[in-house]
Fold this sequence. Notes:
The structure is a homodimer. By secondary structure, chain A is α+β, with helices and mostly antiparallel strands. Chain A has helices at residues 11-19, 24-34, 39-46, 51-63, 85-112; strands at residues 37-38, 67-72, 78-83.
Amino acid sequence: MQNFHRDGICPIRDVLSRLGDKWSLLVLVSLQTNGVMRFGDLQRSIGDVSQRMLTVTLRTLEADGIVERKAYAEVPPRVEYRLTDRGRSLMPCLNGLVEWAQRHADGILENRK
Amino acid sequence: MQNFHRDGICPIRDVLSRLGDKWSLLVLVSLQTNGVMRFGDLQRSIGDVSQRMLTVTLRTLEADGIVERKAYAEVPPRVEYRLTDRGRSLMPCLNGLVEWAQRHADGILENRK
DNA sequence: CGGAATCCATATGGATACTG
DNA sequence: CAGTATCCATATGGATTCCG
């Protein structure tokens, strides 16, 4: 088998664990659907994410080059977020997983009982 | 956009957050590659997972019907793990993500600095 | 061999208050 | 508007010990 371990870090696990956190997927799907969004747009779109967690999530996605942040020097401030090329290249994989989850959600929840 | 929130639970987030934990992906890839495996096989294959975490991970995957556990009443005990049909149906999606992560790992790590 | 049980450290996430 | 800064609760994961 492929050796994902033992050589220090595991990029796969690293990437997956970031996307599997509580908010990243929601942010990415929302950006994919709506294109360019402001901070407040994202917060309303997701609905129940706190300001802090949305900021933390966006900073992480930005650090990984998956989301781009563009701030305008205006008052009141305006900040726009959008997917980068790398982010867009990720979405087909994510969409596949989302579809799988939707197809199997009922069965899985049933299974747990 | 699709409404992943507000209606109580979000099956997508639920499923994704489980797979994004520290060990599930490694277990699934290992089972996909090696077929039927015993507990000790899995532990050696992954390399640095503790007994406890491997147990916890396998129990969760089993509860979701992604992995099947078969115990034989022998001494010393023998327990086999394998992917279920549902688990196998998940692997193409996961493999897509793994490939994406491998292709972009260098760029992402570079980006973070 | 394949766990279960316990204890503990750290990581993750939420609530609240404040700010350029 | 789009954050930062604190503080705190819980979740996750590791080390160790014990067991059929």
